[in-house]
């Protein structure tokens, strides 16, 4: 019997690949006086929060074209407070905001998501419901996170990234972060999400803080790629 044809699809969107790629991480509020406003770093040197992303062999049926489709709306937040549900909503301190106006440099564009942005004690959440194409064979999520904290040590303030159902049941926890993960630069993350073919899922971010010092959890440039056979 002849060899069965396969199409190898590798999704590495948002991750460092072989070779050098420059990524502009913008201004660091803690930068020393006189330091350049725009800093460029090698993407290969960025810390990565990741579950392994393996090459996926897809049995390409006759007439099937394997494609990668980005399924989030307003995924870089630059359209402002649209497509995402934020709670609690505070018009004076929206979770999706122009980060530069708040003293933080966005990873891209001007806007980003900022959880724990306006109160020492808070519990914030934001999410988007996403319809996954029926022919989806894999989902990959990439994005960037930036954490600033006034905490001196320990673990007091936390954030999580989850996949939930539209009834808010937790289907998978992709990542958990805390004030202990704070750093001065944007850091890339990448996760295999699953497939959830033909389902509507909820991409959910949340944070919680105690009543002492503040921790800000910022997110930008989320990309949810679906591998589909059309």
What's the SSE pattern?
A: EEEEEEEEEEEEEEEE
Largest beta sheet, briefly? 7 strands, mixed
The radius of gyration over CA amounts to 19 Å
Treating each run of at least 4 consecutive H or I residues as one helix, how many helices? 0
Q: How many strand elements?
A: 16
Choose one word for the global shape: elongated
Q: Mind telling me the CATH superfamily name?
A: Galactose-binding domain-like
The portion of residues assigned to helices is under 10%
Q: What is the domain total for the residues?
A: 1
- Binned strand content: 35-45%
Task: Quote the distance from N terminus to C terminus.
Answer: 27 Å
CATH class: Mainly Beta
Instruction: Briefly note the structural class of the backbone.
Output: mainly beta
Q: In CATH terms, what is the architecture?
A: Sandwich
Low-pLDDT residue spans: 1-46, 51-58
Could you please say which CATH topology applies here? Jelly Rolls
Q: Which whole number gives the mean pLDDT?
A: 79
Plain-language structure description:
The structure is a single chain. The protein is mainly beta. The protein has a single domain (7-229), classed as Jelly Rolls, CATH 2.60.120. It is 0% helix and 44% strand. The chain is built from no helices and 16 strands. The strands form 4 sheets. Strands 4, 6, 8, 9, 11, 14 and 16 form a 7-stranded mixed sheet that branches. β12 and β13 form a beta hairpin. 31% of the residues are buried.
């Amino acid at each position: 019997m002849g060899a069965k044809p396969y199409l190898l699809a590798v999704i590495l969107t948002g991750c460092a690949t072989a070779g050098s790629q420059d990524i502009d991480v913008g201004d660091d509020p803690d930068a020393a006086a006189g330091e350049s406003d725009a800093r460029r770093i090698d993407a290969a040197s960025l810390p990565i929060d990741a579950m392994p992303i393996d090459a996926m062999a897809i049995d390409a049926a006759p007439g099937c074209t394997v494609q990668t489709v980005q399924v989030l709306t307003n995924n870089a937040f630059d359209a402002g407070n649209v497509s995402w549900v934020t709670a609690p909503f505070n018009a004076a301190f929206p979770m999706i905001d122009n980060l530069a106006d708040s003293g933080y440099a966005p990873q891209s564009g001007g806007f980003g998501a900022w959880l724990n942005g306006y109160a020492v004690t808070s519990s914030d959440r934001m999410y988007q419901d996403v319809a996954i194409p029926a022919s989806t064979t894999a989902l990959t999520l990439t994005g960037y996170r930036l954490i600033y904290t006034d905490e001196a040590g320990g673990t007091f303030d936390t954030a999580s990234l989850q996949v939930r159902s539209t009834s808010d049941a937790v289907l998978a926890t992709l990542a958990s972060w805390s004030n202990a993960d704070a750093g001065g630069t944007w850091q890339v993350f990448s996760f295999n999400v699953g497939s959830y073919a033909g389902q509507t899922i909820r991409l959910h971010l949340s944070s919680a803080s105690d009543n002492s010092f503040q921790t800000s959890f910022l997110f930008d440039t989320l990309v949810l790629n679906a591998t589909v056979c059309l």
